[in-house]
Amino acid sequence: MSKKLTIEDLKKIKEKAQADLEARSAEGKDKIVVHMGTCGIAAGARETLLAILDEIEKRNLKNVVVTQAGCIGLCEYEPLISVEKVGSSKVLYKHVTPEKARKIIAQHIVNGQIVTEDVLSTE
């Protein structure tokens, strides 16, 4: 027989669910979008995504949300990532290898300096 849940058990479950939702919320956080269309994946976007997630975890960055999107029609520049810091314009980076992704996290996300040599466009 399974144990019956108490009011305290339910409160703990609710608190955990709310914390999980807040962690996924992009409001007031820096945003990184990894473009993962077929062309992006073929060009190495999966490895780029894993490097971004690893670097964010290593640096314990809680103010960053990472999401995935499909192809935006710029296949020759894949892997592409978009970075939007709170209060700043969106920056689209091209040919983002795992090494470049780590550099973008360090310079753009942490220090607020755009990595100009890898920029395709800004909005």
- Oligomerization state: single chain
Spatial extent as radius of gyration: 18 Å
Mean pLDDT: 92
CATH evolutionary superfamily? Glutaredoxin
Order of helices and strands: HEHHEEEHE
- CATH fold topology: Glutaredoxin
User: Going across the major beta sheet, what is the strand order?
Assistant: 2-1-3-4-5
Shape: elongated
- Would you count the extended β strands for me? 5
Give me the secondary-structure category.
alpha+beta
Low-confidence stretches: none
Q: How does the major sheet shape up? A: 5 strands, mixed
Distance between the termini: 58 Å
Under the CATH scheme, which architecture would be assigned?
Answer: 3-Layer(aba) Sandwich
Explain this structure.
The chain is an alpha+beta fold and 123 residues long. The chain has one domain: 3-Layer(aba) Sandwich (Glutaredoxin). 41% of the residues lie in helices and 20% in strands. The chain is built from 4 helices and 5 strands; from the N terminus they run H-E-H-H-E-E-E-H-E. The chain has helices at 7-24, 38-43, 45-58, 98-110, and strands spanning 30-35, 64-69, 81-84, 90-93, 119-122. It has a 5-stranded mixed sheet, with helices on one face. Strand 3 and strand 4 (90-93) form a beta hairpin. Helix 3 (45-58) crosses helix 4 (98-110). The longest helix has 18 residues, at 7-24. The protein is elongated and about 55 Å long. The model has no long low-confidence stretch (mean pLDDT 92).
